[in-house]
Amino acid sequence: MATPIFMAGLPGKMAAETAALVAASDDFELFDIGLSSPVHEGKTIAIGDRKIGLVASDSLAAVALPADTLAVDYTTPDAALDNVRWYVENDVPFVMGTTSFDLDEAKRLVAASGVSAVIAPNMAVPIVLMQAAARWLAAEFPGALAGAELKVVESHQANKRDTSGTAKALVASANGLGVPFPVDDIEKVRDPARQQSEVGVPAEHLAGHAFHRYELSAAAGTVQLVLEHNVLGRRVYAEGTLAALRFLQQRLAAGSRGEVLTMEDVLRG
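^ that's the sequence the OP posted. Answer follows.
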């Protein structure tokens, strides 16, 4: 029997992309109510052959979820922590893809509850693997690149206000390797004209992309290392979210309670 998925963040693009994969899967089914902002209260959204009614957080008390429901959260930084509180208070295991809120407090709430969750600022498997590799290098070879210089440019859709968490994570690894680069020096590109002309983002993906470039200069400028990772659209994040849901199911079946899981846990299986 398919597991119900309660989607938080509809009709937002990331939530909608994930919901479409959920609807097309054999092992999950969309719950017929989704969490949205007050401006969408009472509206419906079509996902595949399902119509999902949208409610705001003030109406959650009237929502009765089946006992085996899992939640997926792609909402906003302002709403995410209150959503976590609702999930743990109502015994709803969840996958949290929302970023730029108090993740430490979210993890504390989960650990103090009987609800397990996958909390991951990035659901894209290739990017998660790259971040893990960078952290390993920093741990194994601390200070090995002392004296090197770094330039970081990240480009995302114009409505992304915060600096990329992925860029911040890679800068932290660079710091561990001895490169003194502050996260405030990360260059954010949000202007569509620059994104096309300077970064190389295709016009059709201006509304959804993640293009990053890291340039490391070492040995008095005689050595240059360049790392790029470019993501078009949101499919890779949605696929990672479904992998996280399946892993969370496995952990719950094995008795997991109050466990904070990451995408690296998901990849380890």
